Amino acid sequence: MDYLKQHNLASVPALLVISRYLATQPDGAEENELQRMLQPEAMAEGRSASSAGNDASNVLTSSLSVGEDLGLFDSERSGRGLRLWNLKDSIRDDVGRLPSADSRGFRSLVLRLLAARALEEVRAGNAPSDVALALTWVLLRDPLDPLSTNWDKGPEAAFENAGMRTAVRNAEQWRAFQRWARSLGIATVAEVGGQEAYLLMDASKALLDVLGRLPQQERAEQWFRQLQEILPVLGHPILVSALPEGSARPQGIPASLALAVQKLKRRGVLDLALSADASAAAVLRIGGQSLRIGEVRVAEVTG
Q1: Percentage above 90 pLDDT, the chain
Q2: Hey, which of 50, 178, 259, 289 has its CA 20 to 30 A from 283?
Q3: CB crowding 122-153: b at 16 or more within 10 Å, else e
Q4: Beta partners for residue 270, in sequence order
Q5: Could you tell me which residues come within 8 angstroms of residue 243 by beta carbon, excluding any fewer than 6 positions away?
Q6: For the residues 187-193, what does the mean pLDDT come to?
């Protein structure tokens, strides 16, 4: 399913609101109930009631469809012939344990589901979602050469030259993709001189969120392999193989992942043991510099 093209209004915050509500409804909720209970009052500010209602309805409908594709929600026809939505039993406890003021756990859950769904599709011979494909490609790029938030000032040409217009075609989809990347905790926006703004890809938060799922001490190649199984958008070879011919292909660990690992090392969260044996090392390349890592140790798991 293409999220940016078919369900452009879907968002991670909307998925969170819906999930929290459905976690309290063991028998599920019909879509009209969800609309009545979850429509944000702020959407009505400065707009007509009908306009605000249509916007909220479209956000809800799009987010439900995307959530179902991701594996967050199930749906069926109720006894009244209306669509009844449920939170998947496999994630009900995870959502129920989320702190009211902290959505990091949900952010990580959605990223893992999105990446796993994309990997599943490629393995089945299908195209992954446009969001997952774009994330995979952007995270392969040099993080020291960020893309402008303005579609006309570089991103359009970059996507065109890489054959990636099948993932992001226009300014509207580029804005939606940026919302996804920021909400998933793998990008921030930085302004330069008060005029230009750039999308900075930074996977350190995403990596920090899954450290508890990774070996606390492991050979580097195996450690990174397991990380990419958990978060395939960080350079899993199968997802990379789905990129169009001519797209950037990493040699060793993708630069954005290498940068995230280095950031966590500087924070004392990771310990990277250097290796003199090139054949048994994972190679981290950032800005023309290379490090051969023989072993990764998790010094601290936070959050």
Answers
A1: 70
A2: 178
A3: beeeeebbbbbbbbbbbbbbbbeebbbbebee
A4: 298
A5: 133, 136, 137, 140, 162, 164, 249
A6: 90
At 202 the three-state DSSP class reads coil
Q: How far is CA 162 from CA 19, 122, 135, 179, 189, in A?
A: 36, 19, 14, 22, 22
Q: In this structure, what are the phi and psi dihedrals at residue 262, rounded to the nearest 5 degrees?
A: -65, -40
Q: 188 φ, ψ to 5°?
A: -135, 165
The string of pLDDT tens digits covering residues 160-183 is 999 999 999 999 999 999 999 999
Instruction: State the pLDDT confidence band at 50, using cuts at 50, 70 and 90.
Output: very low
Q: Report whether 271 contacts 239 (CB < 8 A).
A: no
Sheet holding 29-30, edge to edge: 29-30, 83-87, 73-77
The DSSP-derived string for 133-169 is HHHHHHHHS-TTSPEESSTTTTHHHHHHHTT-TTT--
Q: Which two tokens stand for residue 157?
A: 């040409």
For residue 246, pLDDT beyond 80: no
Name the residue with higher pLDDT: 83 or 215: 215
Measured at the CA of 90, the angle between CA 84 and CA 92, to 5 degrees, comes to 65
Q: SS3 of 99, please?
A: coil
